[in-house]
């Protein structure tokens, strides 16, 4: 299973999940979930997700470190300011909110099934290897950061 670690770019995973959400919604139309003002709710969630993800990228760029999570060894510094004071993975949190928005837009209970799949995949194959590397590179500093800031929110 380690062959999947750090292999799929998170944005590609978001696109794959979004596509599977459409397929699930189409395959199970009886699992429709009528949501009043779904477009407005989806838009708000998408905006919030995009802002959080962009703020995460902004902080990485400001710190002069890589935003490509598949190569954590290129991390030049531990980013703990800005949005990283609230989440150790704001870009991934933003992606999850975008997928939540998509599920609301699709108004499908079946589409919601992909949300825990995304979180479980990210935790196991993306975040866990990143955290291993960060513990090795930044030792006590990262351990203290882990102790005070949650993984997602």
Structure write-up:
With 153 residues, this protein is mostly helical. It contains five helices and no strands. Helix 1 runs antiparallel to helix 5 and helix 2 packs antiparallel against helix 3. It starts with 9 loop residues before the first helix and ends in a 5-residue tail after the last helix.
Highlighted features:
mainly alpha, 5 helices, about 0% strand, about 150 residues
The description of the largest β-sheet is:
none
**Tally of alpha and pi helices:** 5
Unreliably modeled segments? none
Please, what is the average pLDDT? 96
Radius of gyration: 17 Å
Distance between the termini: 27 Å
The strand count comes to 0
- Strand proportion, as a percent range, falls in under 5%
User: What characteristic shape results from the CA principal axes?
Assistant: globular
Give helix % range. Answer: 55-70%
Classification by helices and strands = mainly alpha
Structural topology:
Blueprint: H1 10-27, H2 38-63, H3 90-106, H4 109-112, H5 114-148
